[in-house]
Amino acid sequence: QVRQVRTIVVHPDFDTLSYEPSTALMQLDVPLEYHTAVRPVCLSSGTGMLSSSYLCTLSGWGIIKESGSSDFALPVLVNEICERNYHFSHPGGITARMLSAGLVSVGGQDS
Asked: What residue stretches are annotated with the Peptidase S1 domain (predicted)?
């Protein structure tokens, strides 16, 4: 399905130095048709803690594959591990409001 984005609403407190909070809403020009490959996202209630036994499904556009989307499953990481391994690429630090996921020992897939 191909849709155009009608409106983007970035979180009003978004900071370009810390990248927090990195939340935005996009309104599409035409609603999506749900099926096995297109479904609403499942959001956390915010009351529980995630551990490294959880897998996250990540998706994105344009960075990994120039002209398309990508998605993959990665284990949740303790934020201290992300801070130790990725501080050079995120000078604002990894904070408690962030979710870290990746394969640190393998490299190449992280978020």
From this structure: 1-110
